[in-house]
Amino acid sequence: MDYPLLTLSSFFVGIIVGLTGIGGASLITPMLIFLFQVPATTAVGSDVVAAGLLKVVGSVRHWQQKTVDLTVVKWLALGSVPGSALGLTSFHYCQIHKDVCQIDRILPHAIGVVLLAVTLLALTELSLSLLFPATVFISLPKLDLGTKSGQLTAIALGAILGYLVGLTSISSGSLFALVLMTFFQLDARKLVGTDMSQASILLTCTSIGHLGLGTVDWSIVLPIWCGGLPGVLVGAKLCGYVPRNALQVLIYGLLVSVSWKLLQTA
């Protein structure tokens, strides 16, 4: 294991997380699997713990900037936390029955499917908004969290996405960002802060589960923290200076290539 390279790579991933609120697990898990040849189960568990702290640090910064919608965070978390527990249960079942599930072969494939689907949806939405800024392509009504139906819908959305995160560790930021844009229609600043706060709660709870399952390798987590935490702070500082749309296009292009490689090698 090349620990200096892992720390340096994590620093750049941290910058992306600080700038956009997404990309932590989506970049770190494939990086661990391909670049550092870490088994898929260990890569997922270690990444969840590492990414969790990165999101917590970013959330604190956004809390200080008052760019977090706590109501949205609350109702999504009520679904995502138990959903992630179910995802972890599925993960644990596959871990125990390796001969039947072949988890080290299937898990990269599952990660690739989720990552590719999320990235293509996000890239399509971003491209349409850039090409046709005055046109509204998604006309779904905004969820009203003051009503019982709105609250139940938010919980259901959180549960579905939480399950995927618990199973794969991927898209705690990307999936929820799409939901926040589509169903809650938050402005750009609150979108990043709310997304990161929701992800910090979800990943913290999921981290506890992976610690119990014994899938966390601290020799991997610590170098990620050493590079990623300063990167998050730098990214948050640069957030007001870097053109967000251009950066998102670059990130999504990278994620498409990573997910495609995961699907090819699974």
What does this structure look like?
There is one protein chain. With 266 residues, the chain is mainly alpha-helical. The chain has one domain (3-265). It contains eleven helices and no strands. It has helices spanning 3-20, 24-34, 40-64, 70-96, 98-101, 103-131, 148-168, 174-184, 188-213, 218-238, 244-265. It starts with a helix and ends with a helix. The model has no long low-confidence stretch (mean pLDDT 80).
Helix content: over 70%
Find the count of extended strands (DSSP E, 2+ residues). 0
Q: What's the alpha carbon Rg, rounded to whole Å? A: 17 Å
Q: Oligomerization state of this entry?
A: single chain
Mean pLDDT: 80
* Low-confidence blocks of residues: none
List keywords for this structure.
266 residues, globular, single chain, mainly alpha
Short description:
With 266 residues, the chain is mostly helical. It contains 11 helices and no strands.
